[in-house]
Amino acid sequence: MIDDNPLVKEMYIDASPELVFRYLTEPDKMLRWMGLSLEIDPRPGGTFRLDPNGQELIRGEYLEVIPPRRIVFTWGWEQGNTKVPAGSTIVEIDLIRRGKGTVLRLTHRNLPPEEDVRSNHEYGWSHHFGRLKVAAEGGDPGPDPCWIEKPPEPQTQSAPNAKEQEQNERR
User: How far is CA 53 from CA 34, 68, 80, 154, 163, in A?
Assistant: First the structure.
């Protein structure tokens, strides 16, 4: 199916494509900016399963993973939004080096034509990529206000100088 009207979002992140890629493929880093729980296996054929808010489940499968440039996976709801069934849409994330940073380009294909579906996804991606930007740039995005239930208490860092370690990882 050809999608002549995909949802496209772009954002500049002041971090290397290598670091941004890690925030998209490593569970501990991804959970800093999106979701309550996550099961991912970022390789072609691998699982993508996300609980974004305590009441819904998003499920898909990785189709393409090219470090640190591109990730493609299917997307939809296993539980929750019945207008977008699990695996029924395709999310493409391209990371383009710009100077010392990265342009993240998201293309979400095959969304149903209902306006509320598109606007909800547009809002969701903008919200979560804003949080990704904060995390990848070394900040703390804090608890996600998209959580419907009270989020779990944050775990304290046991390693000394955790912020310094995070800054070193950004380099």
Answer: 9, 28, 11, 15, 26
What is the residue extent of each domain of the chain? 7-170
At 48-67, the pLDDT tens digits run 999 998 888 999 999 999 99
DSSP helix/strand/coil, 28 = helix
* Structure-block tokens of residue 26: 């490593």
Q: State both tokens at 52.
A: 């974004």
CATH code 3.30.530.20 for 7-170: yes
Place of tokens 């598109």: 118
Spatial CB neighbours of 151, under 8 Å, sequence gap ≥ 6:
36, 143, 144
Alpha helices in 47-140 (DSSP H): 115-136
